[in-house]
């Protein structure tokens, strides 16, 4: 289906807005993946707040101008599926990595975070980033560790005093 100029401008504006709000971008080639699997991928993407798009490369290049994802224009060859992570930078990478395990024809081409183009081999780096909940949990555990150590130390003092008093009592009982 041919797109007229107004449709192309609307697509570029929409993708540009999405790219401006996204935290990371993962690009994949989905040629040969059946419709059922793609529908399943789209459903999982919606659950994880990942915006999936299939856009012509020429329109994508225009849409990425002025955004952090301008660096990916060199790798835009062939059909491209764009996964924009909107809340969690590693969400699209995790989703695409899991999907590629079960679909041999699905190939990750490249990824971009904070204006840096990363090779497809580095998808594990991005996929292994903790989610927001995991990161907050790690932060809380680091923050609470000194407090809990102090509480354990303060609780230890009375019990040590009690053990010393009990030992002195036992010694005096034995001596008597």
Automatic annotation (TrEMBL):
Name of the protein this chain belongs to: Large ribosomal subunit protein uL10
Keyword Repeat part of the UniProt annotation: no
Subunit structure: Part of the ribosomal stalk of the 50S ribosomal subunit. The N-terminus interacts with L11 and the large rRNA to form the base of the stalk. The C-terminus forms an elongated spine to which L12 dimers bind in a sequential fashion forming a multimeric L10(L12)X complex.
Its job: Forms part of the ribosomal stalk, playing a central role in the interaction of the ribosome with GTP-bound translation factors.
GO MF annotation list: large ribosomal subunit rRNA binding; structural constituent of ribosome
GO biological process: translation
Similarity comment: family membership: Belongs to the universal ribosomal protein uL10 family.
Keyword Chloroplast carried by entry: no
Xref: SUPFAM superfamilies: Ribosomal protein L10-like
Keyword annotations from UniProtKB, A to Z: Ribonucleoprotein, Ribosomal protein, RNA-binding, rRNA-binding
Position of the signal peptide: none
Organism phylogeny: Bacteria, Pseudomonadati, Pseudomonadota, Gammaproteobacteria, Cellvibrionales
Matching HAMAP family: Ribosomal_uL10 (MF_00362)
Superkingdom in the source lineage: Bacteria
Database matches in Pfam families: Ribosomal_L10
Listed GO CC annotations: large ribosomal subunit
């Amino acid at each position: 289906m041919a797109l007229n100029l107004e449709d192309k401008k609307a697509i570029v504006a929409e993708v540009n807005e999405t790219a401006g709000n996204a935290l990371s971008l993962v690009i994949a080639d989905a040629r040969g993946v059946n419709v059922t699997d793609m529908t399943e991928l789209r459903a999982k993407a919606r659950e994880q707040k990942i915006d999936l798009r299939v856009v012509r490369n020429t329109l994508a290049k225009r849409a990425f101008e002025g955004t952090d994802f301008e660096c990916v224009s060199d790798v835009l060859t062939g059909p491209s599926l764009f996964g924009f992570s909107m809340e969690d930078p590693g969400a699209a990478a995790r989703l695409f990595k899991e999907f590629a395990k079960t679909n041999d024809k699905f190939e990750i081409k490249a990824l971009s975070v904070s204006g840096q183009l990363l090779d497809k081999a580095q998808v594990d780096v991005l996929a292994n980033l903790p989610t927001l909940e995991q990161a907050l949990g790690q932060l809380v555990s680091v923050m609470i560790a000194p407090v809990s150590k102090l509480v354990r130390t303060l609780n230890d003092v009375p019990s040590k005093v009690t053990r010393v008093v009990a030992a002195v009592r036992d010694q005096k009982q034995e001596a008597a």
